[in-house]
Every structure is written in structure tokens, then in C-alpha cells.
Amino acid sequence: MPTTRSYRDECGIARALDVVGERWALLVVRELLLAPQRFSELRRALPHVSSNLLADRLRELEHNGVVHRGPSSVYELTDRGRRLEPVLLALGEWGIEVPQPPAPTALSATSVLIYLRHAARPDPAGPPLVCRLELDGRVWTVSVASGRLSVSAGEPPAADVSLRTDAKTFSALLADPSSLDTAGGVTVVGDRSVLDRLLRTVSGP
Q1: Is the omega angle on the peptide bond into residue 156 within 30 degrees of 0, that is, cis?
Q2: Where are the domains of the chain?
Q3: What whole-number distance in Å separates Cα of residue 38 and Cα of residue 23?
């Protein structure tokens, strides 16, 4: 059953934690930042949470106006839920200095794409690009234009390059674009120089 625990503290921090402080709650919010998802998609993205616990967190977040469940049980963030994005980004920056957890670990496509969108520094004078990115079986469109990078779910109308891989490999490529030619589990179709330029928006030359 969903939790009814409270800190019983009037501080705004405590009241916020009453809503999103339970285990897995903020990771559910993270997964919905870029696009709505079905329960099964959230379950795949968060492989270490049980189905029952995930269902509890979703009910709590829906009850508290953070998440909305639409037709076909597709979950999406409300406007109130979207206001948590800067909180999550700040936590992510802080967490970079925390040691890695013990294996086996998970890394979702949404997590890597949030990092890409936040950390990318495209050259404002550089030519625009569109990349079709397939991570762990789901397709995303990554676009760069006028020094801005955007990420959206779904197929692009047209793409300069297409990359298919898993989230962990894509994360490694962002950290070291020079490993593209030797990375396993990577399929590239189109202009590889465009992909290299995309990867280097994070790691630099």
C-alpha cells in the first residue's frame, strides 16, 4: 500500500520530502522528464524496483499531483511535477562526486539523455544536426541548432546520422568520443562525422 508517513515538520523541505522523499519516487520523476511512459517502460528503466513498489510510488505521486495517468495507463508529469527538474539536475551534479554503487548497476536511457541535454555546449556557429538515437530499443531525436541541443521522443522526419546502442555504451561514448570506432554493440548509419560532433558537444575537442 502507498505510504502515509510524514515528517510532521512545517519546513518546506520536509513537506516536499513527504511527497517525493520515499525510495524510488524521484527516479520515477526522472524517467518521466523527457516523455510520458507506460508502467512496463518504467519497469524496464528501473530494473531494481519491484512491480508492487513501483505501483505504490506511482499512486502516491498521482495522489499528490506530481504525476498524471492518462489513457492506456501512460504516466506523465504534471506541471507541478515538471518543476522538480532543477532539483533533480542539482542532485545529479552533487551526486557525481559520490562513489559508484556496487554491481550490478543500471543506467537508463532517460538518465543519459538528461545528462546530454544539460551538459552539452554546442558551438553556436556550428551547422545544425539531427541524430536518430535508438537506446535500449527506444527511439529519440537529438537536434542541435544555434548553439542549443534538444531531445524529444520518437522518430525524426529526417536525420543526418543514426546511432543504435545501449545507454551505458552511449554514456561511455560521451565520455570518450574517440572510442566510437572500437566500441562494441554500436550501429551507425549515415555521416559519422556528425555523430562525432554530437558526442563532442559534451566532452569537447
Answers
A1: no
A2: 12-95, 109-203
A3: 20
**pTM, whole model, 2 decimals?**
0.93
**In the CATH scheme, what is the code of domain 12-95?**
1.10.10.10
Average pLDDT (77-92) is: 97
Per CATH, 12-95 and 109-203 having the same topology is answered no
Query: Which three-class secondary structure string do you get for the chain?
Result: CCCCCCCCCCCHHHHHHHHHCCCCHHHHHHHCCCCCEEHHHHHHHCCCCCHHHHHHHHHHHHHCCCEEECHHHEEEECHHHHCCHHHHHHHHHHHCCCCCCCCCCCCCHHHHHHHHHHHCCCCCCCCCEEEEEEECCEEEEEEEECCEEEEEECCCCCCCEEEEECHHHHHHHHHCHHHHHCCCCCEEEECHHHHHHHHHHHHCC
- CATH numeric code, 109-203: 3.30.1050.10
Give residue 72's pLDDT band: very low, low, confident or very high (50, 70, 90).
confident
Q: Phi and psi for 164 in degrees, rounded to 5? A: -120, 125
